[in-house]
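Per your request, structure below.
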């Protein structure tokens, strides 16, 4: 099982070196998942809003106050939020286990 957050594909001819490396890594992960016939999930930023809307009551301890995200009353970055959502998809939706932070 492979679970990861995808990056936005660039339509520009140039990009920062680090971002290009992230896209290459994403391609490698996707390729490995494909050739090994692994189930995989990815989350795009637009899907974050959909996840939060439909699973808001299930993803406990994740809140937003004035554009700042919190998990268990600790401030988190949007990247940490996305990692939590990827974990939610894998742990709760795929494995059918209870959310650990009820």
């Amino acid at each position: 099982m492979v679970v990861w957050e995808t990056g936005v594909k660039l339509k520009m001819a140039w990009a920062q070196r680090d971002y290009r490396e992230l896209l290459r890594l994403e391609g490698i992960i996707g390729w490995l998942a494909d050739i090994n016939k692994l189930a995989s999930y990815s989350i795009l930023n637009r899907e974050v809003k959909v996840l939060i809307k439909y699973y808001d009551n299930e993803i406990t301890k994740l809140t937003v106050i004035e554009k700042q995200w919190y998990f268990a009353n600790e401030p988190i970055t949007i990247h940490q939020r996305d990692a939590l959502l990827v974990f939610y998809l894998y742990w709760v939706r795929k494995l059918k286990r209870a959310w650990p932070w009820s």
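Strands lie at 2-5, 40-43, 62-65, 68-71, 74-76.

Regards,
D.
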